[in-house]
Amino acid sequence: MPHGGARKNAGRPKGQGKFGEPTKPVRIPTSLIASVIDFVHENGYILPFYGHKVQAGFPSPADDYIQEKIDLNKHLIKNPSATFLVRAMGDSMIGAGIHSGDVLVVDRSLEPKSGKIIIAAVDGQLTVKRLLQKNGQSWLMPENQDFPAIHISSTQDIHIWGVVTNVIHPV
């Protein structure tokens, strides 16, 4: 009985894995594993983007072709070195489409302007609210009438972490 080497019909059939194509094992030095994983995460997965639009009303037959590949990083993240993700908790922003458990894409490089949704630390507690600046005063406004607005005063310790650019909302 032979030992080692290729055996007929052994292993997973080519093209049947997660990626639908043959794969190849790659050896990476242990010291470089974290760098390779960071590189993969920074560049993200490229997902198929179908050219056919999906009807939100009456159903329409779908096309069976992929128009292009789409990189979600290019659509969701404009400034990678200044962007982070954070999970929303609570119901104060449901009127803005932000629900508890949603993932928020936050860009630290954007200027927090009145009307923008921001992440702020208020007296050491993180919150997501809409910034309102009016008549020389600033407020952190909820998008739910059951929650009070937060007046930003000089006595509070406020630090704005960034501007929310996208919401990833599971259905």
Overview of this structure, please?
The chain is built from two helices and nine strands, in the order H-E-E-H-E-E-E-E-E-E-E. With 171 residues, it is mainly β. The strands form two sheets. The protein has a seven-stranded antiparallel beta sheet with strand order 3-4-9-5-6-7-8, with no helix packed on it. Strands 1-2 form a two-stranded antiparallel ribbon.
The averaged pLDDT comes out at 81
Strand content: 25-35%
What is the CATH level 1 assignment of the largest domain?
Mainly Beta
Number of domains: 2
Tally of DSSP β-strands: 9
CATH-defined superfamily of the largest domain:
Umud Fragment, subunit A
- Distance from first to last alpha carbon: 54 Å
Compose a concise summary of this entry.
The protein is mainly β and 171 residues long. Helices cover 9% and strands 33% of the residues. A seven-stranded antiparallel β-sheet has the order 3-4-9-5-6-7-8, with no helix packed on it.
